[in-house]
Design goal:
Number of strands of chain A: 29
Distance between the termini of chain B: 53 Å
Helix content of chain B: 40-55%
Strand content of chain A: 35-45%
Helix content of chain A: under 10%
Distance between the termini of chain A: 37 Å
Number of helices of chain B: 13
Shape of chain A: globular
Structural class of chain A: mainly beta
Family (chain B): Belongs to the STK19 family.
InterPro entries (chain B): STK19-like
Oligomer: heterodimer
CATH architecture of the largest domain in chain A: 7 Propeller
Protein name (chain B): Serine/threonine-protein kinase 19
Radius of gyration of chain B: 27 Å
Radius of gyration of chain A: 23 Å
Largest interface: A-B, 50 and 47 residues
Shape of chain B: globular
CATH topology of the largest domain in chain A: Methylamine Dehydrogenase, Chain H
Largest sheet of chain B: 3 strands, antiparallel
CATH class of the largest domain in chain A: Mainly Beta
Number of domains of chain A: 2
Pfam families (chain B): Stk19 (PF10494)
Order of helices and strands of chain B: HHHHEHHEEHHEHHEEHEHHEE
Strand order of the largest sheet of chain A: 1-29-28-27
Organism (chain B): Patiria miniata
Number of helices of chain A: 3
Amino acid sequence: MLSFLEERRNGCKKPELLVRAEVTRRAFCLELSKGRDVQRIHQSGINTLDIDPTEGKYLLSGGSMGVIAVFDIETVPAAKEVTCEAVCTVGRSNKHVHKRSVETVQWYPHDTGMFTSSSTDCLLKVWDTNALVPAETFTMDKPIYCHDMSPIATKHCLIGVASQSSHISLCDLKTGSPTHILKGHRAAVMCVKWSPKQEFLLASGSQDNKLMLWDIRKAKGCLMALDQHNGEAVGHSSTAVRTAHSGHVNGLCFTEDGLRLLSYGTDDRLRLWDVVTGKNTLVNFGKVTNDGRKNVKLAVSSGAVPDAAFVPNTADVAVFDVQNGELVYDLKGHYSNVNCCTFHPLFQEVYSGGNDSNILLWEPDEGRVVDRGEEKQVKQKKGRTFYGQTMTATEDTWSSDEDG
Amino acid sequence: MLLKRGRNKLRMLSTEGATTTDRGVNCCGCESLPTLASEILVKAMKRSRVPDVFSNRKKVRVTGTAHNWEESSISPSEVASETKAALLYLRSLVNVQVFEDRIPPIVFKQQVYSIVKCKTAADKQINDLREKKEIKLFRLGKESDTFAIVFTDDYREHVRRTMADGPAKERFLDTVLEKTSDVSLDKKTMTDLGFKDEEITQLLHGGVLNVRDVGSWWIAIPGAGIFMKCFNKGRDSILRSIRKSKYQKILQQELEDRKLRAVQKLGIQYHIHDIIGAELVTRLDTTSGTMLRLDQ
């Protein structure tokens, strides 16, 4: 790294290269945070997490009992022993709480005064964060699996809603009612995602094994349905048309530049698609186990080259190199299935939530060792003084220090 | 001074959970060292997988004096790529004599993944070889993405040997083998290539085409049935023997020493490459050798 800095000083390398190199290095060497964790509020599994895009200060989480909690995650990253506390929660006692499990929560892209949550009780609620009261409620006729709002849209305020019915509703925040319906899928739609670079492009994956790209301005139908074989007649029958996976499409994530789309299916495969042409880039990620009952939230790093994809894989989060499909390593820490993970773009941290009601924080490994020694001694002085020195279970009291 | 530093480091590695007093004794006041050897090992493994962003790792460069390309008789493009070398090795594992020459040497695409580390690079090279018509891919097996690979020369010889003579056969060998690299054919392509219905029936009888759907066919290997039966039996018997072991894991050496009858025809190495590449087992390196662990 020192030679890199020297070259930057000379002008041989651009400063942006240093940023990119360091972000990539940090994105690829994550480990469970030694000093920081998130307060445990949820009593049941956590289905969804979202970090606010404006400042990266608050973490929104939704659980399977309908509970929504907001955590303050703003700390200096190298701080010792900090627990991120919950700022506010919509608990079971709140009048407006969801009756069933919350499947997706998302901050309003432009400020943290508002957030949206959707649940399998067929309701999409738009909450006012300060009052914790829903400002608007959209009622669908079937349980909602996922919803998404475009992060860059200026010409529209539409929320795409993926539910058990085979069409995607677009709900307008300005008017307060569903305005569009996108028809094309034949079975329940499991996931929906707006492109981060084009405000009218929407991708949706469903239980009929198809992944469709939509331009919402086009009246007739979808732009294209992505084909995993790229047109080659390799599927089971010649009439099996253009499926993206050989199983349900469970999770979707665009890369930060909006040029590629990562999709996760119950055929245990991850596929990387080129958004412009709609072709399968044929990057082979190997077998990634997928339970498949509900929407799984993937995350892709931003600012790193090559990008790292964080994919929940039963009880671990698998980190893949997006360019060549290599499994770099697994993040092991959860006791049960992981449902969602989200990437903090400013600090290159990953928050993951699972069925064990824990939100785990994964930080880049700086080789730092948390020295708990002094703190423990200080604590002892304040309290009881008759315990002289801490004894660890494996220490023996008969060997002397001089022997090897 | 050096000796003393070394001794301190060793001691810290051997005791678990060193207390404050131990950590405090450190020469030069440097930062605390990791307490366990395994922690160091894990960090080293992680460091090797992180992409080399600061160009720290020296790339091994082969100097020009190693091989003089202008004077040698082989051109650089003829040197086999990693995947082709893997395919040639796997092909050598198949002993066609055991099957009384009824099959050509068949290799599975997933076996290449257990030899070549990067799956995407292996896929790309297999596709390149396919475009150059050096190998041919066939769909064999239960899952929708198991592909069998046969070298084009072997396949052509095999078809010549096993199929009954006829105009359809020659036309098939000329057009389908040389021109197209598809896995399946449909009615339109067949008529374009000049095949009449009776000729298609002849090809079906000869075993070169398999029915896929109304009006479309898989290109197949005649006589592949006996191979598939033997292969499936061998694979199931290996997986069963791993499943029966305690903790569902077994040392590769021990697996090779176990004489399973169903595995003798194709050979244990062939099956091991197959189950590793199909990700039915994971290969781990341990101090006693390679271990294969069954995935759930």
